[in-house]
Specification:
CATH class of one domain: Mainly Alpha
Number of helices: 14
Strand content: 15-25%
Number of strands: 9
CATH architecture of one domain: Orthogonal Bundle
Order of helices and strands: HEEHHHHEHEHHEHHEHEEHEHH
Radius of gyration: 37 Å
Largest sheet: 4 strands, antiparallel
Oligomer: single chain
Structural class: alpha+beta
CATH topology of one domain: Triger factor/SurA peptide-binding fold
Length: 452
């Protein structure tokens, strides 16, 4: 049987027009899709370029011809936050460990957390430090001060308490700190009271001990004539020096810990090179500080003062009139002074240095006195009104801790003067909008420090 032949379909003009229309719609859709994909890729490329090229290279500050870039600023803020959080966690640990006696750790932790939560303050502090670091780099270059890559690696090792050449342990080297002398007039002025001699305590006699038959020399006390200046024996203050001792901390273990640390900071966008540059800046600062303070001596000008603290200027003025009329200082201090810590010993504060922790108005008033027995005008501070009397004034030796403190203050003031002398430091406001807030302070840490 023959196949049935199908007759061809009739293609009309209508069918052709419909097919052309469908093909045109498909082509338009493909073009639109391509355009959308292209725009999305362009947007993504812009975001990536802006995030990784444009934004990090924006300038947040200029120091002369040097520029501080946004990327370095953000890394430094983040690195500072990491270190501060680590310290805050340590404070929390010690505060828990020592309980009520560890209140100083809790107070320090509260201060750190408050700084971390103040984003603008954090950014401002870090940016100022970066500006100072640039000033230090310039000044160090002028003086031929450099930091080698080996020194950076040693500093990083030391931050992990790793000393390949031996652990640094303190040994005792005595340094003489002389107690100042006083004239008979100064003794008469302050009228020191006798210090009770502690009664001897009984101790068990060691077995086999026999008393010595040698005579013990006795020293007769002589009356010091009015013209004689009494002296006291120098006292020794222990200063640690460094002596290498063997270490069991292996290079392999150190390398593992360093790698873990670098991996951790990398998650916050901080590279090894940036960490090393932060260490370089710190070492340059230390070296320049040593150069600037190399001629300082372990001495400082000090005043020995006593004071009477009252609540009003009128009362302070009345007491000054009483003193000028010959009334006894110690009696007035005992009766009127509100400083209960020393009112009963004439308000004696002992020796004060210019860098000691007294409020500035009080120190200014004390150091304006030059003659033994001289009394200040009323000095107002946040504690009230002070009447200050100078007992004596001298340049005294200081111990190693205070000497280091004075050198640090001297260098900080030198650096501030250097910065104030520059007219080519420019800060862009953009830093306020890009200051990182990560890593954030954990909620449990906030609850610990700020709970009742």
């Amino acid at each position: 049987m023959a196949k049935k032949t199908e007759s061809p379909k009739l293609v009309t003009q209508k069918h052709v027009a419909r097919k052309e229309r469908e093909e045109k719609q498909i082509k338009t859709a493909l073009i639109a899709t391509g355009v959308v994909i292209g725009l999305a890729l362009l947007l993504l490329a812009y975001v990536l370029v802006d995030s990784y090229i444009f934004q990090p290279n924006k300038v947040v500050a200029r120091v002369g011809d040097a520029e501080i870039k946004a990327g370095d600023f953000e890394s430094n803020v983040t690195y500072s936050r990491l270190n501060m959080l680590s310290t805050a966690n340590n404070y929390a640990y010690y505060a828990q460990l020592f309980g009520d006696s560890g209140s100083q750790f809790k107070s320090a932790g509260i201060e750190l957390v408050a700084q971390l939560n103040n984003t603008e303050l954090m950014g401002e502090n870090v940016l100022n430090q970066m500006i100072d670091d640039q000033l230090i780099r310039e000044e160090a270059a002028k003086r031929g001060i450099t930091v080698s890559d080996e020194e950076i690696q040693e500093a990083i090792q030391a931050s992990f308490a790793f000393y390949p050449m031996g652990t640094k342990t303190p040994t005792v080297t005595p340094t003489i700190v002389n107690t100042p002398t006083w004239s008979s007039e100064q003794f008469a002025l302050i009228n020191p009271t006798e210090t009770a001699t502690p009664a001897p305590t009984s101790t068990a006699t060691p077995e086999g001990w026999e008393p010595t038959t040698e005579a013990t020399a006795t020293v007769e006390t002589e009356v010091v004539p009015e013209e004689t200046t009494p002296t006291t024996e120098p006292t020794a203050t222990e200063i640690p020096t460094v002596t290498p001792t063997p270490t069991v901390y292996t290079t392999k273990l150190y390398g593992k810990e360093l790698g873990t640390y670098l991996d951790e900071v990398k998650t916050y966008g901080i590279t090894r090179k940036q960490v090393e540059e932060i260490f370089r800046a710190d070492l340059l600062r230390t070296k320049l500080s040593q150069e600037i303070t190399k001629d300082m001596l372990p001495q400082e000008e000090q005043v020995w003062v006593r004071h009477i603290l009252v609540d009003s200027q009128d009362l302070a003025q009345d007491l000054i009139e009483k003193l000028n009329n010959g009334e006894d200082w110690a009696a007035l201090a005992a009766e009127y002074s509100t400083d209960t810590s020393n009112k009963d010993n004439g308000g004696d504060l002992g020796w004060i240095g210019e860098n000691d922790g007294f409020v500035e108005p009080f120190k200014n008033g004390a150091f304006q006195l030059y003659e033994a027995g001289e009394i200040s005008e009323p000095v107002e501070t946040s504690f009230g009104w002070h009447i200050i009397q100078l007992v004596t004034r001298a340049t005294n030796n200081i111990d190693a801790t205070k000497f280091q403190q004075n050198k640090q203050i001297f260098f900080d003031n030198w650096l501030l003067e250097l910065r104030n002398s520059r007219t080519d430091i420019q800060i862009e406001e953009i830093w306020k909008t890009i200051t990182p807030t990560t890593p954030a302070v954990p909620t449990e840490l906030i609850n610990f420090f700020f709970s009742q």
